[in-house]
């Protein structure tokens, strides 16, 4: 049997990390096995529909490389692929009526007022109301009369009140519930639209879906889906309900935490490949301890039986590390192409940005780190004279003042401000002085950068700054040290 999976987003806004994980796992399960990955747009909840959200879905799928084999824009013979369009074909009503004929569903004409009088109970912290099957007792004639009178109705599932229902999840195993706890959930709403609960079953079956991957918020409803499958006499797909993703404080990822959606992460300067790689590991781990995977490698390695059911913690520190690994491995030209706008935002003067890009490439974790690495090129920051003191380099204010005063005329006389030429000049001075490199380079680097940590050494920095600016900064250093 060929594996067929689907990603079935509701167009309700941004692409949340949890959604992207479901899409990724669905994609990987299909591709690992040479199967088909389908995109279905679940837009039947008109109230939650957000303009532009469908475009976000397409854009994200394309950008992340989760290319679907079938979908609204790619007919694979199972269309339409948008639920509102499927509704127009009458498919949901047809199947709902089939259930009515079988006694597995019924018309319900109860109005809001009556429903408000139903008893509710608190189960596991959630208030639930179980419909009392009032309309199940209506005679054929009463139903006919209500329908003819145009009375608004919903169609409800008719669940048994005794016995148990068991369903199987790949991760959670067999889950058994008391049928008395199963509400007669609505299958068709009064606006004629199917509920998610009904549409997902009809669609997954009629679209030949073999594996369903989704967040575990659907776990508690799943017994009702199984009852629908049974009522129709359809085969239940393999269900994989994924563990919750939490932030570092073990709270559900929220918009406020800043890493709840793919777009948020891109805005924070993360690379698409690193995000996908990281999300793959939110609940899944390979057999070996390797953690860096391209999408192609993920396809080869992914085994959904290795998904864990313990909550996955979204660890920003780890994502940052991973992103840094991707940056280090990136081809230099591509890195420059991507880093250029960040460099330009930080540096307005006429610097060799390509060279600066080469300096920061292995030192940053995200593009947003660039500004803090390179800002000293633009303007010398205020710095403390204490910075000239370095134990290991055996430098202090006095030695630094001496060195800077001695190298100043050499650097004034120097015409060639290339890194190599400057380095040769300074090394010659070091040899004549009979000291260590650092004894000379530390104060110079401090003077030209005003920083303790820089992405490059003294002479590389001077090459970028050019002669005038380098000399001005060294003179400034001398002045500072004289006044110390
Ligand atoms: N439309 C549902 C959602 O976006 C899909 C759940 C599922 O994959 O079945 O949450």
Word description of this protein:
- There is one protein chain.
- By secondary structure, this protein is mainly alpha-helical.
- It has four domains: 4-71 and 199-245, HUPs (Rossmann fold); 91-188, Glutamyl-tRNA Synthetase, Domain 3 (Glutamyl-tRNA Synthetase, domain 3), CATH 3.90.800.10; 331-374, no CATH class; 385-483, Arc Repressor Mutant, subunit A.
- It is 45% helix and 11% strand.
- The protein is built from 20 helices and 13 strands.
- It has helices at 17-32, 53-64, 83-88, 91-102, 112-116, 140-148, 196-206, 222-232, 262-267, 272-280, 295-301, 316-329, 332-346, 353-360, 370-378, 397-413, 419-433, 437-449, 458-465, 467-482, and strands spanning 4-7, 36-39, 105-108, 120-123, 126-129, 154-157, 164-169, 173-178, 186-188, 211-215, 238-242, 245-246, 312-313.
- The strands form six sheets. A three-stranded antiparallel sheet has the order 3-6-9.
- Helix 1 (17-32) crosses helix 11, helix 10 (272-280) crosses helix 12 (316-329) and helix 17 (419-433) crosses helix 19 (458-465).
- The longest helix is centred in the last third of the chain and has 17 residues, at 397-413.
- The protein is elongated and about 110 Å long.
- The model has no long low-confidence stretch (mean pLDDT 94).
- The structure holds glutamic acid (GLU).
- Glutamic acid (GLU) binds next to helix 7.
